[in-house]
């Protein structure tokens, strides 16, 4: 590892006082945190004056980049008019109403109501609570288990982390909770068997799901949750026909399908929702992140009329619907959600993403010639590059060798921010990215991969 320059005053203060989520806490002293101070379009600037292409849109979320003036004005106007109000006890605000109406307008399936949260994790926790409440309303108290998938990411609150299918989110946190079942991850490159076609892989996964449901009893399972394209598990694009194969099995057992669109939503895959790009017909939907372009925290759960009716009937029986968050439906977030969707509509965001996708795919595809690259995958402007020790056998590096994290160090040196997920490099630029910026992103990624290749050779990691 290159010697780290002396830490700045801000970096030292940061390390003395801040716990960084999802970080190697034991190594931050040595690496030094990266402190950002401003943003412009797809660029962010650190406190040393270095500009980076933010190729991850922060955490897959700043679809409109880092200084959208209309968004700033919408936020300012809302702060002046009413900086806070809540949704409890039948209270409301105009931005919350307007955003719910907009979400219904763009929804891929019939949606009648919207429940607000402050984050994606809270949206997914709410999904589980609603599925339970719904089944209690229907007099099916046993129908409560939730199916998720290995490598899924649904957040980090206790239930959302239980739904998540990644070891770091479970190990040493005493998770997952009972009643959460993890079925296969639909990653053909990694989990397809030798000689198995993609269609056979899909059929095997569907059969495994059917076996799991029959083993557990369909009358004990409330819902399955799935990201159309898995994000934080490594940008895993499902094979053709995957959702079409599993959906009838869920329907047979009256199991709701929850689409976690927290990353996929609002144009990212070239449609308003990833479920539309990947043959999925969900019952309910979780959204957050790009809904406000992340200019303020906000999440939401979108539900159909028959669920709303059940919630009402159960609330009537017991007196109230006892769930809600202080900041759910915050007027600042809702005003920003309304404005972001208005901008996405005006700029034809799906069309725009689709028009940039051929360049994105071409540049990704070209990386396959690189000695480190085992697979590239993408959907719209969401991509992943999986690095391997041996391309022919797909042999992965030992995670302890830290090839992905070291690549992130090289990327940063070339003024590009991407996210290593193990040895997969995720790419998810703001959706406003222009062609020359996208080309610059890939040029820098290529330089960083060359640096990693030299480092791997020098350290003898193969
Ligand atoms: N679901 C998905 C698909 C996500 O990617 C994330 C966050 N990366 C979440 C849920 C959790 O969202 P939050 O961090 O806002 O709680």
UniProtKB/TrEMBL annotation:
Protein name per its UniProtKB record: Aminotransferase
PANTHER family documented for this protein: ADENOSYLMETHIONINE-8-AMINO-7-OXONONANOATE AMINOTRANSFERASE (PTHR42684:SF3)
InterPro entries membership: Aminotrans_3, PyrdxlP-dep_Trfase, PyrdxlP-dep_Trfase_major, PyrdxlP-dep_Trfase_small
CDD domains given in the database record: OAT_like (cd00610)
Organism of origin: Pseudahrensia aquimaris
Record has GTP-binding as a keyword: no
Keywords: Aminotransferase, Pyridoxal phosphate, Transferase
GO MF annotation: an example: transaminase activity
Family: Belongs to the class-III pyridoxal-phosphate-dependent aminotransferase family.
Keyword Transport: no
Lineage top rank: taxon: Bacteria
One Pfam family linked to the record: Aminotran_3
